[in-house]
Amino acid sequence: MILRTTLSRQAIRRSLAAALVAATAIVALPAAAANLTVARSVDADSLDPQKTGTTQSLQITNLIFDTLLTMDKDGSVHPGLADKWTVSDDGKTYAFTIRDGVKCHDGSNFDAAAVKFNVDRAVDPATVNPNASAWGPVSGTTVDGNVVTVKLSEPYGPFTSFLTNIQSSLVCPSSVSGAEFKPIGTGPFKFVGWTRNDSIQLEANGEYKNVNPLIQNPGKPYIDKLTLKVIPEAVARMAALRSGEVDMAEPSLEEAGDLKSDAGFKVYAADLSGQQMVAAFTWKIKPLDNPDIRKAIGMAMNRDAYANIAFEGLVGTGNCPVAPNLFATDEALCASWGVKYDPEAAKALMVKAGYGPDHLLKVKLLVHKLPGWDQMHQIMQQDLAAIGVDAEIETREVAAFFDYMKGVNEKTDGEPAVWTMGMSGVDPDYLYFLWKRPGFVNMGLNADLDAMLEQQRQLSGDARAAKIHDIEKYLMENAYAIPLLSPGWGWLMASSAKIDGFKMGYMVSLLFNDVKVAE
């Protein structure tokens, strides 16, 4: 009995030891790699952020490179590669202290000298940077230790906002060797490979430390490999998503409407895109030179119907001439200045101006062809008919439309027109681009507005916010612009329900740092 008991205990000990070894081996096994494949409609044209202006390219460069500053969802500016900064009293000198210990993907240091390299390169005419003008009036840069100082020839209030923009991503100097460019950055993902018009392969940066307030994950992205695959046809992209061939895809607006009610998928709209859609007028042509008629047309527009029917409930209405969430944007203030949906009040204004069922106001509704916009314009045509405005829709392809509008907006006689457009950015300064004479497609107004637009660029903080409010109030009380929807067009993403943590940031950036893939 004693022998049997001893043997039994030895057997037990051997079994326990074997179990412990097995358990240890299991613990020691590396975790399975989490990979993500995203289908997009078009490829990037360049991975050099100072050589491209396309959103599709900048969405990729934003994954590889970081920005000097970052922006929170309320439009406030936060640290990025710079952990602090100061601005001189005259608004012409900015000093940025660069975070210690930032490493490029090749192991080299990213320091104040690297920032100087980027700013100098970005504004150098020889670079042919399509975004050079957005950097503002940079006149020079200097470095002292870990501080880089940027001098401007005149104050430029939007400067810090711009430095959060995907257009201002900073490359590591080792990226540039003569005419050759290799994408080496400090961002959350490293460049692995690129097969043109097929796919771009990235891998997680194991050394990454996040400071972007839109991202919760403090370090390395949870996914290990990220593949961005080009599938031009919308039907094929959706088939790949539904079959599980890809984890995420760019859907059409119609597909997004279907997917959002399917528990197996998630749909993401670009809420922080900075995009705003507005209706505008050929205000130099009678009778649209009358602000009361412009107001009546604005009162007829049922923005809720445009958002919920034409855009499948994937966008919201906006009260301001610039998008929500940007610096100084105050939706309640804008609502108090602008017109509200009120068809009966609109009819009364039209009657007062001499128009009614027996005397219709005939206008062109000049538009460009994009998903969602088409149906919105059809609803808009019905809205205008209800107040005695006979609007004939005239549609053009996007590029041809804006070329055409340059000529239309110069005219002072002829057939009056209502037209629609959209704009995006990370700062209300895009009002300058739109309305400072001659303005975007010649839509600029007058010397009074020009002066206000110039003044807001010379200011900062509360003083600049107040001037931007003056500009918005002027546009809206005179009904030069009727805010419609935000975001304004088709930057959408869809994923399988097993994807969690994906976000779309400012300027429709794609944020994968927080993404986890469920088993």
Automatic annotation (TrEMBL):
InterPro entries: Peptide/Ni-bd, SBP_5, SBP_5_dom. One of its GO terms (biological process) is peptide transport. GO terms for cellular component: ATP-binding cassette (ABC) transporter complex; outer membrane-bounded periplasmic space. One of its GO terms (molecular function) is peptide transmembrane transporter activity. The keyword Repeat does not apply. Residues 1-33 form the signal peptide. Keywords: Signal, Transport. It is found in: Periplasm. It comes from the Bacteria. Residues 77-435 form the Solute-binding protein family domain. Belongs to the bacterial solute-binding protein 5 family. This is ABC transporter substrate-binding protein. It comes from Mesorhizobium helmanticense.
